[in-house]
UniProtKB/TrEMBL annotation:
Domain of life according to the entry: Bacteria
Biological processes, Gene Ontology terms: peptidoglycan turnover
Assigned GO CC terms: outer membrane
Keywords assigned by UniProt, alphabetized: Membrane, Signal, Transmembrane, Transmembrane helix
Protein name: G5 domain-containing protein
Transmembrane stretches, start-end: 18-39
Lineage: Bacteria, Bacillati, Bacillota, Clostridia, Thermoanaerobacterales
Domain G5 residues, every copy: 151-231
Single GO term (MF): hydrolase activity, hydrolyzing O-glycosyl compounds
Organism expressing this protein natively: Thermoanaerobacter uzonensis DSM 18761
Length: 343
C-alpha cells in the first residue's frame, strides 16, 4: 500500500465518528425541542371575575394552582377537576363558595357553598323537603353572599280527644215549697263527645287545629231543680200563712146596699155574689182576669177572704172588700194595700 492510499483511508476512518457525533447532537437538539414544546402549556385561568393566561410545565390542574399560589376552600368548585391532566389551550374555572345561613326547623348554621340556587344548596346539605314544608324563597333563587334560607318543617297529626258536654240546669218553680227552698229532683250528668282533629305543627310548635269529625258518645242529662215560690207571712195576730204572690192594689169597700149593688131587700139576688154565694165579711170582688174567682186572699188591714164577687168598676189591679155595714165601708174608704194570693 502506497502512502497516498493509506492517508486516504485514514481520513475516511477519522471522518465517520465525527459525523456520527454531529448527527447524535442534532438529534438530541431536535428531541429536546420537541419535548420542551410538548411540556410547555398555555392555560387560561378564570377565578370568578379575574381572568389570566399562564404558561406552565405542570401536569395537572392541582399542580398548576399550587404553582400559582391559588388557595382553595373545600367548598370551592374547580372545573375541570383537580386531577385532570393539563393540555395546551385549556381553560380552568374556579367558582368560589360564598357564606350563607341555612335555618332548618328553627336551627340555623352558617356554611360556605358554591351552589347555583337554593335547590342545589338543599341537595348538597342533604335537606329533604316534605310535602308541607315551606321555604322562605323560591327554589330557583340564585345563591348570593350572606343569603338566609329558612326551611319551616311542617307536620300534621290526627288527634282524637274525648271532651265533656256540660249538662244544663232546669229550674222549675214549685208552689208547694216555701220561697228560698231548693230541691234537686234529678241529678245532672255530663255527656261525652269525641272529636277528631288535624293538628298542624311548624318546627314542632302547634299552629292550627281543624276538626274533621265530631260525634256524641253520650248525651248529657240535665239537672232539674225545684225552687219554692211560696212566701210565708205572719200577721200581727201571730197567724202564719203561705202565699204565692204579693200584689199592691187599690182597695175600696162595699155593702149589700142599693148604692153599691143596685139591689134592694126583697130582690131575689139581694146579698148574692157573682159566684152565687151569700155576701158576708171575707167576700172580695175582683177582676177575674187578674185574680181568678175562688182564689184565697189575705188583704192587708182587712184579713183573710176569698175572690167570690165581681163589680162593674173593679178592673185591673183593683179590689172591693165586703163589709156588713155602711159605716165600715166609709171608714175603709179607698186605699192602697198589699194583697197576698194564698196557696
Amino acid at each position: 500500500m502506497d502512502t497516498d492510499d493509506f492517508r486516504k483511508r485514514l481520513g475516511e476512518i477519522i471522518k465517520k465518528p465525527v459525523a456520527l457525533l454531529t448527527l447524535a447532537a442534532i438529534l438530541l437538539l431536535i428531541v429536546g425541542a420537541i419535548t420542551y414544546a410538548s411540556l410547555k402549556k398555555e392555560i387560561t385561568l378564570q377565578d370568578e371575575d379575574k381572568k389570566i393566561v399562564v404558561t406552565t410545565f405542570k401536569l395537572t390542574v392541582k399542580d398548576l394552582l399550587e404553582e400559582k399560589g391559588i388557595k382553595l376552600r373545600k367548598e370551592d368548585v374547580v372545573m375541570p377537576s383537580l386531577d385532570t391532566a393539563l393540555k395546551n389551550g385549556m381553560k380552568v374555572t374556579i367558582k368560589r363558595a360564598v357564606p350563607i345561613t341555612i335555618c332548618v326547623g328553627g336551627k340555623a348554621k352558617g356554611i360556605y357553598t358554591a351552589a347555583s340556587n337554593v335547590k342545589e344548596v338543599l341537595q348538597q346539605n342533604s335537606i329533604t323537603l316534605g310535602p308541607q314544608d315551606k321555604v322562605n324563597m323560591s327554589l330557583d333563587t340564585p345563591v348570593f353572599r350572606y343569603m338566609y334560607i329558612d326551611v319551616t318543617k311542617v307536620t300534621e297529626k290526627i288527634v282524637t280527644q274525648e271532651l265533656d258536654i256540660p249538662y244544663q240546669t232546669e229550674t222549675v218553680k214549685n208552689d208547694n215549697m216555701e220561697r228560698g227552698q231548693v230541691r234537686v229532683v234529678q241529678q245532672g250528668e255530663v255527656g261525652k263527645k269525641q272529636i277528631v282533629m288535624k293538628v298542624t305543627y311548624e318546627n314542632g310548635k302547634e299552629v292550627a287545629k281543624n276538626i274533621i269529625e265530631e260525634k256524641i258518645v253520650k248525651n248529657p242529662i240535665n239537672q232539674i231543680v225545684y225552687v219554692g215560690t211560696l212566701g210565708v207571712f205572719t200577721t200581727s195576730r201571730g197567724e202564719t200563712f203561705r202565699y204565692r204572690e204579693i200584689r199592691t192594689m187599690v182597695a175600696t169597700a162595699y155593702t149589700n146596699g142599693v148604692a153599691d149593688t143596685g139591689k134592694k131587700p126583697g130582690d131575689p139576688n139581694y146579698g148574692i155574689t157573682a159566684t152565687g154565694t151569700k155576701a158576708t165579711r171575707g167576700v172580695i170582688a175582683v177582676d177575674p182576669r187578674v185574680i181568678p174567682l175562688g182564689t184565697r186572699l189575705y188583704v192587708e188591714g182587712y184579713g183573710f177572704g176569698i175572690a167570690a164577687d165581681t163589680g162593674g168598676a173593679i178592673k185591673g189591679d183593683k179590689i172591693d172588700v165586703f163589709f156588713p155595714t155602711l159605716e165600715e165601708t166609709i171608714k175603709w174608704g179607698r186605699r192602697y194595700v198589699k194583697v197576698y194570693i194564698l196557696k
